[in-house]
Please model this.
Amino acid sequence: MEKFRETLEQILTAEHTIFNVEYIKKDGTLRKMPSARLHVKKDTNGKGMKYDAIEKGLLPVWDMTKNGWRMVNLKQVTKLKIKKEKLI
Model:
């Protein structure tokens, strides 16, 4: 649980900064996102999600490489790099 909170805090400090993240997906495979961002308005309906993603250990981010939304499993982050600084 401590790693979850620490990872969340580190990503939230990135604000509008592009960051790199790698994590283990639900199916057990590794997802590498070399360019992810928070606070993107693209492809949203303005109503928000029907559930609290943070409560489920997930963080919605915009994957700039794939041009779509992804849910980062904060409990399974294996690598995090923000502003060229490797944090995990």
